[in-house]
Amino acid sequence: MVEKGFEVISEFNFLVFLIPFIPFFASMITLIFGKKYFKENSHWLPVLGVFTSFLISLKVLLDVIHGKIYDFDLYKWIVAGHLKVGLGFLVDPLSIMMTCMVLSLSFLIHVYSIGYMHDDKGYYRFFSYISLFTFSMLMLVLSNNLLQLFLGWEAVGLCSYLLIGFWYEKRSAANAAKKAFIVNRVGDFGFALGVFSVFYFIGSLYYTDLFKHLDLIANKYISFWGLKVHVPFLIAFLLFCGAMGKSAQFPLHVWLPDAMEGPTPVSALIHAATMVTAGVFMVSRLHSLFELSNAAMAMVAFVGAFTCFMAGSIAPTRFDIKRIIAYSTMSQLGYMFMACGVGAFAVGMFHLFTHAYFKALLFLGSGSVIHALHTNDIRKMGGLKKFMPVTYITFLIGSLALAGVPGFAGFFSKDAILSMSFFSKYPWGKAVWFVGLVVVLLTSFYTFRLIFRAFCGEYKGPKDHRIHESPKVMTIPLIILAIGAIVTGYLGVPEALGGHPIFYHFLEPVLGKPHVVEGSKTVEYTLMALSVSVCFFGIFLAWLTYMKYPSLQYVISSNFRRFYEFFYRKWYFDEVYNCVFVQGALWLGKWVVIKISDNIIIDGAINGSAWLVRTVGQGLRKVHNGIVNYYSAFVLIGLVIYFIGYLILMK
Amino acid sequence: MVPMNYYIVLAFILFFIGLMGFILRRNLIVMLVSIEVMLNGIIILFAAISHYVKDVSGYIIIFFVIASAAAESAVGLTLAVLIYKKLKTVYSTDINNFNG
Amino acid sequence: MNWDMLIFAYLAFAIVTTSLWAILCRNPVHTVLLILVMIIHQAFLILTLGCEFLTAVQIIVYAGAIMVLFLFVVYLVNLRKETRSSMFIRKWALALIGILFFAFFFWLNINVLIKFQVICLSITCYSLR
After folding, report:
1. For residues A71 and A69, what is the distance between their CA atoms, to the nearest angstrom?
2. What kind and span of H or E run contains A460?
3. How many other CB atoms are found less than 10 A from the CB of residue A162?
4. SS3 for C98?
5. DSSP state string for A536-569
6. How far is B35 from chain A (nearest CA, A)?
7. Which residue has the higher pLDDT, A118 or B74?
8. What percentage of chain A reaches a pLDDT higher than 70?
9. Which of A130, A468, A522, C56 has its CA 20 to 30 A from that of A166?
10. Does the distance separating the beta carbons of B31 and A627 come in below 8 Å?
11. What is the pLDDT of residues B13-55, one digit of tens each?
12. Terminal Cα distance for chain C, rounded
């Protein structure tokens, strides 16, 4: 996993320890004292805490660039028989890259929230929760064993629940939080089984031990209900279940659009940049395990491709600005999994890195719009570019990055994914490339649909509303993120275009080289040109439909009604899940639990024993009635029985 | 000679008649009478056996049985009279002070 | 057919009949009187067995003392003719008991019990009618 050029430091390092724990302490102090003592000033401690962590992480990044790796345990957490797990930190290029990204975004979103959540009565709670979330994400990223990863995994799920349901008095928000947690929990169940199976087959949960002993399981098969299952595939599948839940891939994707009930900074931080990328991070961290099994790689690639296409097809039908961006997140996460599935883990991580910036930018921009208009519906928006110029320009930059227009960040990462999958050694590379190309078209279409409807054209909302630009504390993070959306792309300019992809070189010791066959340069340039032209075609289509001929919007929805309904109803997933799982669980609860085991079994047992005692008592009561005849009859019966018994015994 | 079986059968029949009378009648006096019937059946049994086995012990037992029958019927009847004095009835279904 | 058999048959028949009638009778005075008759027949039965003394003792003690005692008590408690049905037990139980006794005597496998088996069956049929 690590090249010989690195020195591994295994003793306690105070700075690395501080990185996650400063936000944690800030969060706890704000939570305890925020309501009474801090009140409106609750934001100072978390913001300063996260900023300090960010600076420390930059320093540690410099250390890693100079060739140091930290791998130490804080203390021995579980020592039980063969299981020895500690709370530890592993700082290598992958984790420090993620740490810096998480902390930079977290800091900018903390600052943004000062303006966005200004008059909210849960102000202190919000900052405490997002600091807690930052702590959880950092524990996840910096862990050096699978159990701590799982700890961070569950903790970010918890923070997601707390933050989605932040406005808990709103019923839809509470339901969305429940849905997110439960769907996540389904994935976490598979993940837990994966952790158990890793321990069972390899005997240790530390990454270093895992990578050392991979050859133990490389060719092992276990028989499971009559089928011979390849052990690496089993472990990869179980762990990927967790990734599917956390990163909102099919089939556990249903929680992400509903999670937009939370405040916009939450959506930006958690559901664009950090929590949902935990799945991709886990797959990249355990890439050597996934590479052992071709079936696992195929599963990752196909799940990613399917989700990519599905989300891309649903997004153009949405009317809520945040939900469009949520489906866009789902689609881009599909891209990342597609990259991992064809063996180009570093490219997937690069797309994760750039995507974090421009997606957070898009979310914060939409938050700015929502803050000004107090509505999410794009049908009530229009012509906002003259009211909110800063928001418009940064949003436009973010959209260009998302669509993959050359010059912005998204182009470099997305194009790298497409070319890696085309040239991949794995046989499903070409199919993945084709899906990716189609989704480029869909992505640019729905992104620019959003831009044209929200910012250009005529204002369609209530006329008495005074629309103003957001305060500086909200626009400055937007500007910084816009710069990030452009600049981060240049960290990974591919060699074909004459750049030095320092990002890939930085991650190479951890993630290895992508599994590609060498292709000719002309093919690469053709592919690049093809994807760029598809992107521009999508933008052109959006312009045609929404600016030039507005009646064109209704072509599909009126003529191909059934077809349109399918996409409009989100491929009927919610209905199917409701029918099967929700109603099934309710039916199970009503019949099995309430009717059968409560009413019949438990009540039956208790009432039945009382009934038994009463009936026997009533029966026996007749024996003692004071009438001599009865008594003599009983004597006779007893005598007869005695006599018969005597005869039987004598035989 | 009459075979011994006949006497024994007769004794059994009489005993069972007395038994049925004791169980099925509600009148105390008739119940006591049926006890006498039972005892008479026993008397016939012992007499027949003792005659055919040529042992005198059976006759001796009969004396005791007659004596005990006399004593027990005296006591029973006294009790029946006393019950009548107290409860004004001799039907066993009405004499259920001891139920429960 | 010799005299012994005949005498025994008459005495046995009389004993069984009178005792059966006695316990089924509603009038208690009739009951006691019928028992008296039964005791006298029984005394003669013992006489046929060759024990005169016992016969005398039976008549003097049983018939002379005990039954008189019974009669005194019957008049003392003012027993009248019963108006309620004399059978105490339900019909199906009676039938059951009849069948049980029938089975018992059948098991005893004695030829002369046919008479009593008939009686049992008749009780069963009477109770089931």
Report:
1. 6
2. none
3. 21
4. helix
5. HHHHHHHHIIIII-GGGGHHHHHHSHHHHHHHHT
6. 12
7. B74
8. 99
9. A468
10. no
11. 899 889 888 888 888 899 999 999 999 999 999 999 999 999 9
12. 38
- Chain A residues close to B23, C-beta within 8 Å: 629, 632-633, 636
Q: For residues A92 and A145, what is the distance between their CA atoms, to the nearest angstrom? A: 13
Q: What would the pLDDT profile of A491-520 be if each residue is shown by its tens digit?
A: 877 777 767 778 888 887 788 777 777 777
Full DSSP string of A382-425:
--GGGT-HHHHHHHHHHHHHHHT-TTSHHHHHHHHHHHHHHTBS
CA atoms within a 13 Å half-sphere pointing along the CA-CB vector of A636: 18
Asked if B93 contacts B24 with a C-beta cutoff of 8 angstroms, the reply is no
Q: What is the pTM of this model?
A: 0.73
The kind and range of the H/E element at B45 are helix B28-53
Give me the interface pTM, i.e. the ipTM.
0.89
Count Cβ–Cβ pairs < 8 Å, chain A vs chain B. Answer: 31
Within 13 A of A33's CA, how many CA atoms are on the CB side?
Answer: 13
* pLDDT for the residue numbered C113: 59
Distance CA C30, CA C23 (A): 10
CA A61, CA A95: separation in Å to the nearest integer?
Answer: 10
Element containing residue A73 per DSSP (H, E): strand A68-80
Partner residues linked to A85 by β-bridges: A78
User: Which domains does chain B carry?
Assistant: 4-94 (1.10.287.3510)
A102, A138 Cβ separation under 8 angstroms: yes
State the Cα–Cα distance between residues A137 and A134, nearest whole angstrom: 5
Strand partners, A72: A89
Length of chain A: 651
Instruction: Report whether A1 contacts A211 (CB < 8 A).
Output: yes
Residues of chain A neighbouring B98 (CB-CB closer than 8 A): 626
Chains with at least 3 CB pairs less than 8 angstroms from chain C: B
Average pLDDT of chain A is 87
**What span, in angstroms and rounded, lies between the C-alpha atoms of B94 and B27?**
10
- Determine contact, residues A421/A433, Cβ cutoff 8 Å: yes
Chain B's closest residue to C28, CA to CA, is B30
Contact status, residue A101 vs residue A485, Cβ threshold 8 Å: no
Contact A106, A130 (CB under 8 A): yes
How far apart, in whole angstroms, are the C-alpha atoms of residue C19 and residue C29?
A: 14
- Residue showing tokens 């949960």: A205
Q: CA separation (Å) from A194 to A147, A186, A292, A643?
A: 11, 13, 15, 71
Rg (chain A; Cα; Å): 31
Q: Are strands A227-230 and A68-80 parallel, antiparallel or unpaired?
A: unpaired
